[in-house]
Amino acid sequence: MDLFVKISVFRILILVRAFVVVQMQSFFNSPPPEYYRRTALKDCIKNSEGTYYGTDSAYGGIDAYEGEFQHMAAIGWRRAGGKIDYDCGGILISKQFVLTAAHCGQDNENKRPDLVLLGDTVLERFYDIESTQKIAIHDIKVHPYYNPYYKYFDVALIELEKSAIYSTTVCRACLWQENYVPTGPMDAAGWGALGFFENPSPLLQHVVVRHIDKTACERKLTINKNRIPQGIREDQFCAAGRNMDTCEGDSGGPLGVKQYTLSGIEVPLVVGVVSFGTACQPGSVGVYSKVSEYVKWIEQTTKTSMSIKDCIEESFCFHENDINVGYHSFNAKSRFGLLWNEYDSDPNQCGATLIDYQYLLTAASCVTTGLGHPKYVIAKNGERAAISNVYISPKYSAGRPENDIALLKIAQYTNLQVYQPACLWDRQSSGMWEFEPRFSANGLKQTSRNPFESLFVRATNFLDCEVPWALGTDLYCFHNQVDLLTGECEMDYGGPVVGFNSSDGSAAQLYGIVSPLSRSCDSKLFMVDISRHIPWIKAIVVEKLEPFRFWI
Asked: What is the residue range of the signal peptide feature (predicted)?
């Protein structure tokens, strides 16, 4: 190849690379030729190409079924003649350790237990089945502050002689990390007595109980008060159920909840360890050691991280539930974040939705905080554009949830080969929403492989909220009652509430803006309906009028 050809090829490569760089940058300093063609908000489809969304993720005394409580352990004492008495329960929290009550560290004859049974729901079998694992106990580590006379620090760790093998019937549980106790129903499991003066159950049972007030609990306790001189402490809590409770033989077993990841994985979380209680009869209560108070001691003793993230990553054996959790990732081609200074880089403080080359919709409450007005919008790739104007709805009153809407104008022009404006759905002309509303949210760093993963929370119960004070306003309420892991997801205040056709790849239809009234991803979801604000938006975006605004 001669020198001329080489130089020509080199120039072509430079031109091609330069063209690609220009095409893929997020913002331009000059308007594109078609910028002035827009005459109405409805023509947004003409300006929009590409795919806006990802794919749906699937998502969450009674006899327990096999594999229902994979973390359940039975703690056994070998007796003369080969008989095994399973007199306590336990919780598998890693392949090597079982969490139990300290008073299960020895029986009434001061004999330590010999083995742990995993993966079974029936104790009195005449033969072993393939799904069960009997593992000898290597060591028992009782909490250093435990005193057998008192009912405090009643936790212990059993170290197994060999590692448990995870399967469909054997899997660890994760530890509840929060200081508070869940207010909803919790499951306790065990093979304890079926009632006062009754025999232990040969079948694994579970009961549903709820957290009860400390004062009410202490009134019911019949135990010698000298054994609980401090009453119920902060590292303990009480629970009771309607004609249900834990009984003798359930000691050391789990009390917990099941929550879900965004991908529908069911995660068992142990909130308490069965410690003691009143006699098993109507009105009885149980006292539990609060697991969250012992996480540090457990980690130090086992030399294993007990974080939710590490627990989930290790436990491929968790159930994948077929309940539709109503979440899915999406390619955020119209969602931008707001930044308040040039040193900011967190795109998840408040969201905004691109609706035109230069305009984005957000919540007025996002742009009127003590931080002042935001200075930049930031794209998913980290590029940012300066905000030149902020327009706040003239109907908005600070501190009020209705009319919580604002427009942002940026100083540059968005590249629509990279981003895709959402189209505004006007219920006045188009009727009710065509597709179910999906609320913008952010995946958590705790369990998400992508720390800033964008998500949509689907409104599972359409317009099914009883909020009388919101009637007649621009606020709409939806239910999304799925019990997610704490901190698994957080709402994207100011971000989009959209509907879209998952089959044709058309632009998202913007229904509203995520309201700060939406406290969490798994509770009531509130949006500000944009329909009532269409004339105001049109006046600024299309007609280029300059109502009251703030200059940055």
From this structure: 1-18
Q: Active-site residue 515, yes or no? A: no
- 177, 169 contact by CB (below 8 A): no
Phi-psi region of 96 (alpha: psi -120 to 50; beta: other; left: phi over 0): alpha
- DSSP secondary structure of 264-287: -BEEEEEEEEEEEES-SSTT--EE
- Site of tokens 């020509």: 8
Homologous superfamily in CATH for domain 62-314: Trypsin-like serine proteases (2.40.10.10)
Rg (CA), the chain: 30
Helix (H) or strand (E) holding 378: strand 376-378
Whether 328 is a known active-site residue: answer no
The tens-digit pLDDT sequence of the chain (552 residues) is 444 333 333 332 323 333 333 335 788 888 877 777 777 777 664 444 433 322 222 112 677 778 889 999 999 999 988 888 898 999 999 999 999 999 999 988 889 999 999 998 887 664 566 778 999 999 999 999 999 999 999 999 999 999 999 998 999 999 999 999 998 889 888 886 544 334 566 678 888 888 999 998 988 887 788 899 999 999 999 998 765 445 555 789 999 998 887 667 889 999 999 998 876 566 678 899 999 999 999 999 999 999 998 998 887 787 765 444 455 445 467 889 999 998 888 888 999 999 999 999 999 999 999 888 999 999 877 889 999 999 999 999 998 999 999 999 999 998 887 788 888 887 766 666 666 666 776 654 444 434 445 666 666 555 556 677 777 888 888 776 666 777 667 788 898 888 765 444 456 788 889 998 887 777 778 889 998 999 999 999 888 777 655 444
Within 13 Å of residue 317, how many CA atoms lie on the same side as its CB? 25
Which residue's entry shows tokens 């491929």? 316
The whole-model pTM stands at 0.61
- Residue 395 tokens, joined: 């109907």
Question: Yes or no: is domain 41-57+328-546 CATH 2.60.40.10?
Answer: no
In the chain, CATH 2.40.10.10 sits at 41-57+328-546, 62-314
The active-site residue out of 26, 94, 201, 251 is: 251
CA distance 25 to 352: 19
Catalytic residue among 71, 103, 206, 211: 103
Catalytic position from the list 87, 154, 356, 474: 154
Q: Is 71 a catalytic residue?
A: no
Whole-angstrom CA distances from 84 to 77, 89, 454 are: 5, 14, 53
Q: Helix, strand, or coil here: 128?
A: coil
What dihedral angle (degrees, nearest 10) is formed by the CA atoms of 288, 489, 436, 512?
130
Distance CA 417, CA 378 (A): 17
